Amino acid sequence: MKVLVTDNVAQEGIDVLLREGVGVEVRNKLTEDELCAVISEFDGIIVRSATRVTARVMESAPNLKVVGRAGVGVDNIDVSTATERGIIVVNAPDGNTMAATEHTMALMLSLARNLPQADARLKSGVWDKKAFVGVELRNKCLGILGLGRIGSGVARRAHAMEMDVVAYDPYITEERARDLGVTLLPLEEVFRKADFITVHMPLTKENYHLLDDDAFAKMKDGVRIINCARGGIVDEEALYRALVSGKVAGAALDVFEKEPQTESPLFSLPNFICTPHLGASTREAQVSVAVDVAEEVIAALRGELVKNA
Ligand code: NAD
Ligand code: MLT
């Protein structure tokens, strides 16, 4: 059995494959054409988010049995083509939960206290205290959109910051929300109540541009927005307008509709902060997702039960 590994998957995951006698080839930054040219040799492929496993790639892969995603989102894999061709798609849904949860808290605190802006100003030689008066999280209402693994972790940490936490998630039970100390509300009520809104759902056809001009208009004046989930859920042009008008006091994005993103109009705004899809980028998370996905890929290659298909 041979597995192609792309996108800087941690060595610990590769070691799991090697220990189990699976042949591994590591090839980063392959174009679709290059991937199509080499994929026929492989029984499996493991990717992070950069490599797109398209229908064309799968059509060039007569031996491919499994596609492993070292992370949560499988939006870079054509899952319906894989299903049609009997190729199993597995992911690693738990390994980077803590990393993304902590990154969300870091973005929320950075937004509240203008940390990136103050850091940049001071390093440019200006000691400016007046420009960076922030707000406290304590006694503010946090609205969580998507109360799954990461949303729940954020809720627990927000309680520690003495925030009131509400959430919109049509797929979880009242009981689950109650256990987390979170009040489930309809989306528009979350918009109406929240001082901070953080997005933690997958991108689907239904929630594309969920946060658009209409949504921002329904929110509190001076709301602050965080998206550490998927680009495309926030309409970036509408966000730009809302930040310029001051309706939205600040926003922090870790993810963009087009990635890599290096020249968004948002970058010119002083009340906008961002990171280049760093939510899962901790050493611990990368080891964890690499090991988890390698174990799943081995199970799939052996025809054993996989947990995260
Ligand atoms: P999860 O599946 O555990 O939770 C997602 C939650 O969203 C579920 O509770 C689901 O019921 C809910 N949901 C689905 N559609 C919804 C909708 N239209 N409205 C409201 N709620 C909805 O997933 P997770 O592990 O918590 O990950 C959440 C998101 O974060 C995913 O998009 C994932 O890809 C992304 N993510 C990003 C990073 C990063 O590096 N920035 C890292 C890890 C995960
Ligand atoms: C994920 O879905 O796991 C994250 O976006 C992190 C990543 O792409 O590595």
Structure description:
The protein is α/β, with parallel strands linked by helices and 309 residues long. It is 37% helix and 16% strand. The protein contains twelve helices and twelve strands. The protein has helices at residues 11-19, 32-38, 55-59, 79-84, 97-113, 115-123, 149-160, 174-179, 187-193, 213-218, 236-245, 283-301, and strands spanning 2-5, 23-26, 44-47, 66-69, 88-91, 141-145, 164-168, 183-184, 196-199, 223-227, 248-253, 272-274. The mean pLDDT is 97. The site of D-malate has 8 residues, from loops.
Question: In terms of topology, how is this protein built?
Answer:
Blueprint: E1 2-5, H1 11-19, E2 23-26, H2 32-38, E3 44-47, H3 55-59, E4 66-69, H4 79-84, E5 88-91, H5 97-113, H6 115-123, E6 141-145, H7 149-160, E7 164-168, H8 174-179, E8 183-184, H9 187-193, E9 196-199, H10 213-218, E10 223-227, H11 236-245, E11 248-253, E12 272-274, H12 283-301
Parallel strand pairs: 1-2, 1-3, 3-4, 4-5, 6-7, 6-9, 7-8, 9-10, 10-11, 11-12
Helix pairs in contact: 1-12, 5-7
The protein binds nicotinamide-adenine-dinucleotide and D-malate.
